[in-house]
Amino acid sequence: MEAYLEDPDAAKAALPWLKEGDQARRQIADLMIDLEMHKEQDTIHFWAIHSLDDNSFVGLIGLGDELQLAASAYNLGYWVKKNWRRQGIARSCVDAIFSWQSNRTEQSLIEITVHPHNEAGLSACKSICEKWKGLAIEGFVPIEIGNRTIPHVLHLVQLNRGD
Fold this sequence. Notes:
This protein has about 160 residues and is an alpha+beta fold.
């Protein structure tokens, strides 16, 4: 919650379903409960990112189940606190998670959706796709956020064992 209050706009960009103020507190608590309930299943996987120096909270990254394509296994989402951005943290975490996922299964299709005006997000997706042989799909996919349809760019990364 402290991280949300530090930069609510960035948190809402990463978690667009978040409401304002006290409603956000309840939603974050519900997210933590939901993640705890799913920890023994293979439907979603989320990790907190912590500093190696002092173990302070740096961000959140996960493989979720809000999918655009029936063939997809997960969608990738992440959020890094403002003071920790542009240090390669998200990219390092993505590499670790994709390596982990590649060792767990024969193959899995991972989606990454980004708002077309989110230049940092698009740049990160381009970098991820270059390393992991992913691609951006032409056109936009509609994402429902707060009773509005918002177009997003869809990126796909096919993870294969041993890649």
